[in-house]
Design brief:
Length: about 220
Amino acid sequence: MTKVTGKNKERIALRQVDKFAERRAQLAASALQTLSELGYARTSLRDIAQNSEFSHGVLHYYFSDKVDLIIQSVKQYKAECVKRYDEIVATARTAIELKHGFSAALARTLHDDASMHRLWYDLRNQSLFEESFRADVLEIDESLQRMIWRIVSQYAELASAPLSVSSSTAYAIFDGLFQQALFRQLAGDSDAGRQLQESVESIIDYLIVELEIGERLSS
């Protein structure tokens, strides 16, 4: 009989953990569309099971409740969003290229993934009332703030100009613009994406030029 050593047991345990995490990721991805269509309040694990190829029992095995599943789904989606914007930061060679790439990506995701973003804002609003998942929502929100700061900081560097705002202020500005545009998009405004793109390009310039003007006036 083959003897299982301590190291072998540890490797087996790690593989089992990896498989469990991989399965959770697969289930969360498959459930995202149903979640985004129904929203937080109107969705249960049973609803998700009825709209997917997975049984209610399978979902309940991998997720303790619907909050666990929703958090996992939104975390995965937002992580993919962050990667897309980080690619824009990494490949842009000029400030203009970065500005256009950033604003175009926002307009594109507003059009293509409106229901996904609606789910995120729904979840963030619910966290004001439900403390059980507030920490997870804050973690996602902070990752988005860091993403925006990388974009704005790189834009300032490429433009050879200093920034006049903090990380939290920059995030609040662009998040507010996007949320307003999302509301208009969901209300049927076909021009919401173009207006968002124009606003983003105007604001990102203002965040830099404002400080330069102030410096000239005080010198």
